[in-house]
Design brief:
- This protein is of the alpha+beta class.
- The chain has 2 domains: 13-146, Zincin-like; 148-200, no CATH class.
- It is built from 6 helices and 9 strands, in the order ααβββααααββββββ.
- The strands form 3 sheets. Strands 5-4-8-9 form a 4-stranded antiparallel sheet.
- Strand 4 and strand 5 (160-163) form a beta hairpin.
- The two termini are 30 Å apart.
- Residues 1-27 have low confidence and may be disordered.
- Bound molecules: zinc ion (ZN) (2 copies).
Length: 200
């Protein structure tokens, strides 16, 4: 048993208020994008140590990147990473992908577009910042798809309905039959309570 089992309700209006608040919170669980603050911190600290003149915008977390885990767009100096990577892999894998893209950014800053993408300059920068000087980052992604779920919200009682497939119709616990127009793709939140989801 967790937290809720220990709540003791004292008589009176305050307790009733609290009980109502608790019920409200449970129904209104936010479904958020996986947080990228730690990734931005990694990028900033790496640049501060190895390429202090280079400033990059906040990392873009993309729900469309499925085969690609990370990318760097030189024209916008934009590092993007897959929301699946952020939601479903461990810290070490995220770090490998991010440092690989930071290496691309630094190569572009120093030599422009001349060097070949994973050539001599890239390998040198990887050595400098502690990234693996490889063309591909090894991240095991086979398990990811089995953890993906689809989420709809009941328009009547606001309950979250989670399914393994995007079915045409679904029955909510409140009894309402729904025909969701669009399902949100989600994954279980890492380290969150059971029933917490992040958007992919
Ligand atoms: Zn690359
Ligand atoms: Zn409902």
């Amino acid at each position: 048993m967790t937290g809720i089992g220990h709540v003791t309700l004292a008589p009176g209006s305050v307790a009733t208020e609290e009980a109502r608040q608790l019920a409200f919170d449970l129904e209104q669980r936010p479904v958020e994008k996986p947080t990228a603050a730690a990734v931005d911190l990694l990028i900033r600290s790496t640049l501060a140590a190895h390429e202090p003149g280079l400033e990059l915008p906040d990392v873009r977390v993309s729900g469309r990147m499925r085969q690609t885990l990370g990318s760097y767009m030189p024209s916008k100096k934009q590092i993007a990473i897959s929301s699946r990577l952020l939601a479903m892999s461990d810290e070490e894998d995220v770090r490998s992908v991010v440092l690989h893209e930071v290496a691309h950014a630094i190569v572009h800053e120093r030599w422009g577009g001349k060097p070949s993408p994973h050539g001599r300059e890239f390998r040198a920068v990887c050595g400098e910042i502690g990234a693996k000087p490889r063309r591909y980052v090894d991240v095991t992604t086979e398990q990811w798809q089995s953890r993906v779920r689809y989420l709809a919200k009941c328009g009547h009682c606001k309950a979250l309905i989670v399914r393994k497939r995007q079915v045409r119709s679904v029955r909510c616990v409140c009894g309402l039959k729904l025909y969701p127009q669009s399902w949100r793709t989600v994954a279980p939140a890492e380290g969150g309570a059971t029933g917490d989801w992040v958007m992919l």
